[in-house]
Design brief:
By secondary structure, this protein is an alpha+beta fold. It has 13 helices and 6 strands. The protein folds into 3 domains: 3-97, no CATH class; 130-139 and 247-301, no CATH class; 146-241, Chitinase A, domain 3, CATH 3.10.50. The strands form 2 sheets. Strands 4-3-6-5 form a 4-stranded antiparallel β-sheet. Strands 1-2 form a two-stranded antiparallel ribbon. The protein is elongated, with a radius of gyration of 30 Å.
Length: 308
């Protein structure tokens, strides 16, 4: 079997698996209304409830496409086709293909992890008192720092020669705004007097300006000529904001989300540790290192050293 074809077939079977697994009702769960069989493919039945449940998982725009009777008819035909393809795969023996089986296992692993996350999330309290929020904030203050920011004036020219003349005038003390009016070829910058407002580190466009912008130390400092995708640029520092702690009250939604995520991750790892103990897990690190080389020291990775 060609690899490209196997990959496409693997994706197809994963899609089909979702249909069959999601369509089954949980044991003991009562249907909200009596289901009506609207199609049969071999021993697979497709009901109106299954169809509506699948449609409910769509994004609003896609759900709207299938909302009419004609749209539901089209979607039912797609479900039927997927069931037919499921049979086709079995008849042709694709379900026995090792690559497809491996891809299905990979997908199932992610699907099961998602289900575990859903289950443990139900055990996490929805309300967290303010004292715990404040304790978390104080203990993880570095996670709630505002990013460094700069406010600049930008001057862009379409030739290097213009940029050189502009820089010479700026160094002679000619006001930036006057030089901007004379040499800048970006009308929008001229209208704003070159003001960029505050920009986050790493978020400046063009990206070639990021490093020079944060290298400027005090208001009024001027950069050298910087070649960017927009042309030849010169920037002047208006203001610079260093990182500082975000206000506690403003950070509460973020703190609550981080606490919930930490709790959930801890509970998931605890569940997985219990399963590892039951099934037995052994990693041969000596063999691993002979093949792939030794990993970086644990302190650099921030993870425990693997036990051999």
């Amino acid at each position: 079997m060609k690899i490209g074809y196997a990959k496409k077939t693997g994706v197809l079977f994963l899609s089909i698996f979702l249909i069959t697994s999601c369509a089954k009702k949980k044991e003991g769960e009562k249907a909200e209304r009596k289901e009506t069989v609207i199609a049969v493919v071999g021993d697979h039945k497709i009901t109106d409830v299954m169809l509506e449940k699948r449609m409910a998982e769509f994004a609003p725009a896609l759900r709207a496409r299938y909302s009419s009777p004609e749209g539901k008819k089209e979607f039912l035909e797609k479900l039927v086709e997927e069931k037919v393809l499921l049979y086709a795969g079995k008849v042709k023996g694709y379900d026995k293909d090792p690559e497809i089986q491996e891809r299905i296992e990979q997908y199932l692993s992610n699907l099961y992890r998602g289900r575990i996350y859903m289950e443990v999330s139900k055990e996490i309290p929805s309300k967290i008192d303010q004292q715990k929020l404040k304790e978390y904030y104080d203990a993880h203050i570095n996670e709630f720092m505002t990013p460094p920011m700069v406010r600049l004036r930008r001057l862009v020219t379409d030739t290097e020669e213009k940029a050189k003349r502009a820089l010479q005038e700026l160094k002679r003390g000619v006001p930036f705004e006057r030089v901007l009016q004379k040499y800048c070829t970006d009308k929008s910058l001229v209208e704003r007097k070159g003001d960029t407002n505050y920009l986050r580190k790493g978020g400046i466009y063009p990206p070639e300006l990021n490093e020079p912008a944060f290298a400027l130390q005090k208001p009024g400092d001027i950069s050298d000529i910087i070649k960017t995708s927009r042309g030849w640029e010169i920037i002047q520092l208006i203001d610079k904001k260093e990182p500082e702690p975000e206000d506690f009250l403003a950070a509460i939604p973020k703190i609550r989300q981080k606490i919930i995520m930490d709790l959930r991750n801890e509970m998931v790892e605890r569940t997985l540790d219990e399963i590892r103990t039951k099934v037995g897990v052994e990693i041969y690190w000596d063999r691993f290192e002979k093949i792939f080389g030794a990993p970086a020291p644990a302190q650099e990775q921030g993870q425990p050293q693997p036990q051999e």
